[in-house]
Structures are given as C-alpha cells and as structure tokens.
C-alpha cells in the first residue's frame, strides 16, 4: 500500500517537473482540468470542476431562457490572491462571450444610493469610487454585475450589504430615493473576502445565531443559484503543491521569463504562507531570482509577503502514547502539515528509539519552513521532560533530533518531596518495577504521578490547542490515570481547544466517549481503566492538594471525578471549548480509522488544520467573531 508520505512525494516530484518541463508530466497534468480557460487545481479536479461545470451550464441555460425576469446569482469564494476577479471574468466570457463586467467593490462604497446607480443607465456618471462601468457588452440583454467584497461591513455593521441585495436578487428591482429601478434579467457575481468557501462563510456567520438571522445570511444564501470555491496557493497537502505548480508555471512564463533551480521550485511548492497569495509569490520570485543570490528583499518588506504560515506563532500539543507504531503515518503527516502552516509542536515524554517523539522529530527534519530552503535558527518541536525522566541515560536523543527538538528539563519534584518519599534526586527510578516479580513500591508511583501532572500542566499552559490520539488504557499508567486522559482533562480545565481522534482506540477513544463524541452513548464507568495497583489511591491521598490545576479549584482527584469532569464539559455542553469544528465534524474526526489508509490520515489532518484556522472566529466566551 502506498503511504501518505510516498503519495505526497510522488506528486511533489511530478509538480517540479511540471514547472520545469510541462510536456513530461502526465502524472500531474492528469490532476489539472481546464474548462475553457479556467484552471481548477487540486482536489478541485473532482468536486471543484463539477462546481464550475454546474455553474457554467446553469448560467448558459439561464441566458437562453427568454422568460427569465430576475437576476441569477452566483458566489465565488477563495483566499486572498487566488484570482477571484480573473475567475469571474473567465466565467463571464465562457457564458456571454465577453469579459465585460459592471464592477463594484463594496469596501469602497459607503452609501446604498451610490450602488443603486449601476442599475440606472442614465445615472452611470458620476459614480462613487469603487464602481466601474463596463465597455459596451456583447449581450446587451443580459448584463453581468460583479460585486467584490460583498461581505463587507455597511455603516459599521458586519455583513451589512446582504440585506440590501435581497430585493434585487429576489424581485429584480431596486428601490432608491423613492424610485423603483428595474434590474431585470442579469447575472450577479459575488466575491467574498471574509471566508474561503461558502461553507466557511455560512459557519462563521452562524457563530452568533441572533446576528446570523438579523443580518439576513440565510435569506441571502437561499437566493444563490450557484457557488464556486477557488483553491489557493496556501492550501495544505497535495492541493497546495498542485495549486502552486499551476501558479508558478504561469509566473515563470511571463516576460522576461525566469528559470529556477529544482530545489528552489521544491521549496516554493511546499513551504511557508504567501500572505497575498499568488501576488506575493510573484513578488518574491521577481525580487529574489535564483541568478541573484544576494538580492534578497529587506526583511521588513519580505514579511509583508511571506510568513511561516497561517498558524505562525502557535504551539500545538500532541497528546499520544510514548510508542505508537501503528500511528506513524498520522504523526508524520500531522507534523509536516502543522510545520508548513507555521505552527510548532509540543510533546511531553521520553525519547524512545522508535517512539512517538522520534517519529515527530524525523518528520520535522524533513520539513523546511522557509521558502528559500533555510531551516532557520529556532526549534520546531518542544519536548517537556520532568524528574526523573531526564536523569535517564537510556533514552538519549540522537544529534539530528537535537537540531529540531528543544528539550526542556523541568524540576517537577522538590528536594523535600524526594526526601519524604525516600527517593534519590540524582538517579533515575521507575514508577513500577520492570521485573514482574519485584515488589511494587507505591512511593515511586506517587513521585511519578506528581512529576507527570506538573509537567503536563506546564506544557498545556504553553500550547494553543491539543491533538489527542492513541495512548494506552490498561491501568498501568505511571501517573494517576492514563496519561492521555489527564492531559485532555488539564487542557480543558485551562480552556484549550482539543481535537480527539478515537479511531485508533486506546485512551483517546475513552476520552472522546466521555466528551460525547461517539455516536452512541456510553456509560462513564466503562471509560478509562482504574489503576492496576489498589495501593496507589491511598498513597496519593496525602498529596491531593498537589494535584490542583492553577485557577481550577475543583480539579479532579480520583478517576471517577475525572470522568465526571470530562463528561460535563462534552461537545454538546456550553463548557466545550470551541475548536473551529461543528459538533458533527468533531464526531466525524473522532470516528476516522486513522491507522488504516493514507487518504484517511490526510482527511484527519485536514480537518484539524481547518479547525485550528478557525479558532479565532469565536472568543473564549462564545462571542460574535464577525
């Protein structure tokens, strides 16, 4: 079976050849479909192309319908620099034979009376800035109006223009200054600026249900006859590579014509975030060609066009078991895509030769976050280690891993505690004996429980969000309970968004069930196994005050309390921390069989990245993000 990594490498190699020698790239050209002069890259080869074909066919049918008396409305979404304006022109040309449009940029218009003038031929002049009338149209019986940034504010009200458009969309007429101006048969093309897809626009607007209805979002959407989502150069995974290959080939074909090395092409296709989309990509290539290695733009200007990614500055925690071999493809893909969108990763646990951290570090070494191939000076992964973990000489990281992983050694046990527990301060010891015939020492287990709890609190205070996956649930945790469960509990107590993947089973599945992410309800007593050694609970009682999460006076002390804590903060409750995904999307993510197929891994990572990019939409108290 081809792995996700192998499949991505195959596409990347083909994309590089496509940019350098397009005639020899059958693998990639099979993923690029042209409709007229419209190019839809990436996953658009299926859904996107179908969208375009549907809209074009629908508009052609509308144009030939002599009985049509009101406008036909279509919306186009895409990220900045994706070419929405050019795309609208191409749609118009495909349907009417002309790119002639009447344009209005609604960010430049502050009065509805000014916009109404575009429907009155005798009032075309003077027009306010932001409105541009077309040259004589090829089809005078069916004008095409292009409303750019239709989701802009009006009079300080977010999405304020939507209400105004309802009448012309529905009735084919506009009322202005007491006069009714007919619109009649026409094509309305809307382009959005606050979201990258129609689903995203609708979801973002619904964050505040009252405002969603008051701003007439459902009324506006119900009047649309078609929608097109344009992929951009800042997508993730395979779509990013293909979109950038198409854009890069166009840029390099423009006069005076440039050539780039294969390594530079590889970097441009995979790394970083082009702030203004294709425009930024073109600016950097023009200003920093391969033939001028010392011609780098000043950093202040360069930052206006390029960043590490949409998640630049965010630290994403990975809550997983120490050794999760079956989830290696998941860790590799998650690491690559998080780093390529600007995030850094955090993990708490020892460095096993074939363990989870080793897999994350390997993926980090392969990922170059800078477009010019430079790795930069900062670490990509942060590893938190408590006592006595960092005293062990058995699991020391290799030199290559030390180049990308920052190892943070925490003094998670005090000298007084170690003395009280009769444990060494300079020698490693285990929570439980490795020899099954050796006696169990509860005091060792207590020390580890304290250390792991404090390590997890510190790590989770630092992160922006947490991905929860895998982990053992067999009662043999070296902490109080399964590590995954404690990390999920602390994250939620600190108000951090979490993404729970239960498809691989383990403690993550139990956590998700308690959080209401399973389709079927499950009894709490069946989620998470109690400690194998009964003596642990009694040994922990004198230290109960040491397990308080800062700012959380009701921090769980027992397994039963932890179950209750998670249950009452589930995805259907008001205490759930918004993670950018709807309830059903979280449930779908939870159910994905991530240990089986590469395409499922890509789907899971794509959903996580989508959610992370949306967290800022809603404030911590669930306020309006519009």
Name the descriptors:
626 residues; alpha/beta; Rossmann fold; 39% helix; elongated
Short description:
The protein is built from 24 helices and 18 strands.
Oligomer classification? single chain
Low-confidence stretches: 32-45, 123-127, 135-140, 371-377, 620-626
Give the neighbour order of strands across the main sheet.
5-4-6-9-3-10
The fold-level CATH name of the largest domain is Rossmann fold
CATH class division of the largest domain: Alpha Beta
H/I helix tally: 24
Could you report the average pLDDT, rounded to the nearest whole number? 84
Overall form = elongated
What's the helix and strand layout?
Layout: H1 4-20, H2 26-29, E1 33-35, E2 38-40, H3 47-64, E3 72-77, H4 84-96, E4 102-105, H5 112-116, E5 131-132, E6 144-148, H6 162-171, E7 173-176, E8 179-182, E9 187-191, H7 198-205, H8 209-214, H9 217-222, E10 226-229, H10 237-253, H11 262-270, E11 273-274, H12 278-287, H13 299-302, E12 306-307, E13 315-319, H14 328-340, E14 344-348, H15 356-366, E15 381-385, H16 399-402, E16 405-409, H17 415-420, H18 442-462, E17 465-469, H19 483-493, E18 498-501, H20 506-514, H21 535-540, H22 559-567, H23 583-591, H24 598-614
Parallel strand pairs: 3-9, 3-10, 4-6, 6-9, 13-14, 13-17, 14-15, 15-16, 17-18
Antiparallel strand pairs: 1-2, 4-5, 7-8, 11-12
Helix pairs in contact: 1-10, 1-11, 3-4, 10-11, 10-12, 14-15, 14-24, 18-19, 19-20
